[in-house]
Specification:
Length: 458
C-alpha cells in the first residue's frame, strides 16, 4: 500500500462516526419520487446533495431543474492530463408501504446488528454517500484528487429516469468523461465483493379490459355473456407455455445466447440454490426450462404479472359480473432486446389473443434498455484492484436482473463504459419494508471507492 493510500484510508477510519451522522441526515429526507405529495422533499434532498458536494470540496455543485425532479451535478477537474470519471447515482427512493411492516420508521435511520435500517439505505443513498465520503477523504487530506471527477446524481431513477436522457443530451460537453462509475447494484454475497457487468432492461405495460357497460347482477346476467376477469386471465395465462417460455412471437429473436464460456463462469460462482429457495420462502423454485437459476435471473428475459384487479374484493360476498379488469405486466429484457420493440410485440400479441367479448386497451409505462459492460476495459481492472484493497479480497464478476436505465444511455450518448461496483446485498430488502445496509460493507466500499481514484490515475 502506498503512503497516500494509507493517509486517505486512515482519514476514513478516523471520521467514520461523523460520516454515519451525515448519512443519517441524508436518509431522513423522504425523497420518494413516485408520490406528488413528496415533491418538495425530493427538491430538498437535491439541495442537500448539492450542499454536500460543495462541503466536501468539489469546485462545482448545483441542483439543476428538469421537467421532473432536479438532477444534481458536481465536479472537480484539477487533475490535468488525467482521465475523468463520471459518478452516477440516485437520491430518490421507493415508496415505503406497507408501513406497518417496518420495525423502525423508514425515515428514522436506526442501527441494529451492524446494519443501518432506512428507506434508501442500500438503494441508493448509502452507496451515493460512500462515493461522497471517499472523495472527501482525498480532498481533505491531500487537497486534490488523483483524477478528474464529475457527478450526476438523479432524482427519478425509481420512476424510470424519464427526463434524464434529455438532460444528458443537453449537457453532452459538460458530462464528457472516460468512464462511468456506478454503485447501485448488489455484491454477490456477504464476504464476496463483486463487479457487475450486465443489467437487464425493462418494458412495462398496463392492460385494461372492458366487457359490459356496467357491473351486472351475476344471477340475472351470468351465463349469457363473458366475464372480463376470466377473459383477461386467459390472455395472461397464454403468454407462457408449459416450459415457462414466453409465447409472444418474435420475443426471443434478439436475445443474445449465453456463450458456453460464460455459462461455465456463472456455474463456478458459489451460489447456494437451496439457501436461495429458503430465503425467498417458496416450496419450489421455477423458471424457463433448460437454464440454471442464475442464468434465469441474469441472462434470460422474463414476463411477470405485477398486479391484477377487478370485480369484488371486499369483505363478504357480492354476486356481481364485473364490467372491467386490469393487469400490470412487465418484461425484464436481455441484450440485444429493445424495450420499444418488445412493447410492440406484446401489444400486438395480446390484441390478437383478445376475444370479441371484451375490448382491450394497452398502455405503455416506463422502460429501460439492457446492457453488458466490457470486462476487459482497464477501468474494470482498476476497480478490481481497488476492491481488493477495500475488502481484502478479489471481486467476482456477476450480472444482475435489475435495471438501471442510464447505463445504456451513457454508452449510447457519451460513449462511456460503466463500472458497476455495488456494495448492497441481495437480502437487504430493497423496495421492501426494513431496507438496510451493512455497515462493514459501507466502510469497505468507502475504502474501495477512495482507492479507485488512485488506481485509475496509474
Ligand atoms: N438499484 C436498482 C437496480 C438494481 C436492482 C440493480 C436489482 C441490481 C439488482 C434500481 O434502483 C431499480 O430499482 N431499478 C428499477 C428500474 C425501473 C424503475 C426502471 C428496477 O430494476 O425495477
Ligand atoms: Mn437503485
Ligand atoms: Mn431501486
Amino acid at each position: 500500500m502506498t503512503s497516500s493510500t494509507t493517509v486517505v484510508l486512515t482519514y476514513l477510519a478516523q471520521h467514520h462516526e461523523r460520516h454515519l451522522d451525515e448519512l443519517f441526515e441524508f436518509l431522513r429526507i423522504p425523497s420518494i419520487s413516485a408520490l406528488t405529495e413528496h415533491r418538495a422533499d425530493v427538491a430538498r434532498c437535491a439541495e442537500h446533495v448539492a450542499h454536500q458536494l460543495h462541503a466536501i470540496g468539489l469546485t462545482r455543485a448545483e441542483a439543476l431543474p428538469t421537467d421532473g425532479h432536479p438532477v444534481v451535478y458536481g465536479e472537480w477537474t484539477g487533475a490535468l492530463g488525467q482521465p475523468t470519471a463520471l459518478i452516477y447515482g440516485h437520491y430518490d427512493v421507493q415508496p415505503v408501504d406497507p408501513l406497518d411492516l417496518w420495525e423502525s420508521p423508514p425515515f428514522q435511520p436506526t442501527i441494529r446488528d451492524g446494519q443501518v435500517y432506512a428507506r434508501g439505505a442500500t438503494d441508493d443513498k448509502g452507496q451515493v454517500f460512500m462515493h461522497l465520503k471517499a472523495l472527501e477523504a482525498h480532498l481533505r487530506t491531500t487537497g486534490r484528487l488523483p483524477i478528474n471527477v464529475k457527478l450526476l446524481i438523479e432524482g427519478e431513477e425509481e420512476i424510470g429516469s424519464a427526463n434524464l436522457d434529455a438532460f444528458i443530451a443537453a449537457h453532452r460537453d459538460q458530462l464528457a468523461a472516460d468512464v462511468a462509475v456506478i454503485s447501485d447494484t448488489a455484491m454477490f454475497a456477504r464476504g464476496v465483493p463483486s463487479i457487475c457487468y450486465g443489467l437487464r432492461g425493462l418494458a412495462y405495460l398496463q392492460l385494461d379490459v372492458v366487457g359490459p357497460a356496467s357491473d351486472l347482477h351475476s344471477g340475472s346476467f351470468g351465463g349469457a355473456l363473458a366475464n372480463p376477469i376470466e377473459d383477461l386471465c386467459k390472455i395472461l395465462a397464454a403468454l407462457k407455455d408449459e416450459n415457462r417460455r414466453i409465447t409472444i412471437p418474435g420475443f426471443y429473436d434478439d436475445v443474445r445466447p449465453l456463450a458456453e464460456a460464460e455459462r461455465v463462469e456463472l456455474g463456478l460462482l458459489p451460489f447456494d440454490e437451496e439457501a436461495f429457495r429458503r430465503k425467498v420462502g417458496v416450496p419450489a423454485l421455477a423458471g424457463e426450462a433448460g437454464y440454471t437459476t442464475l442464468e434465469r435471473l441474469w441472462a434470460r428475459p422474463t414476463l411477470e404479472i405485477n398486479g391484477m384487479w377487478g370485480g369484488f374484493t371486499g369483505e363478504g360476498s357480492k354476486t356481481v359480473l364485473p364490467a372491467r379488469a386490469s393487469a400490470k405486466v412487465s418484461c425484464r429484457l436481455v441484450p440485444d432486446q429493445d424495450p420499444e420493440r418488445i412493447a410492440d410485440l406484446l401489444t400486438e400479441h395480446v390484441q390478437r389473443l383478445c376475444p370479441p367479448t371484451i375490448s382491450l386497451t394497452v398502455t405503455r409505462m416506463h422502460g429501460g434498455k439492457p446492457c453488458l459492460t466490457p470486462l476487459d476495459h482497464p477501468a474494470v481492472q482498476a476497480a478490481a484492484r481497488a476492491i481488493e484493497v477495500g475488502f481484502g479480497k478479489r471481486p467476482v464478476f456477476t450480472r444482475e436482473g435489475g435495471t438501471i436505465p442510464v447505463v445504456a444511455t451513457l454508452a449510447e450518448q457519451l460513449g462511456l463504459p460503466s463500472v458497476l461496483m455495488g456494495i448492497g446485498l441481495r437480502d437487504e430488502n430493497t423496495h421492501a419494508p426494513n431496507e438496510h445496509l451493512d455497515l462493514e460493507n459501507l466502510r469497505n466500499g468507502m475504502r474501495s471507492a477512495a482507492q479507485l481514484w488512485f488506481e485509475l490515475a496509474r
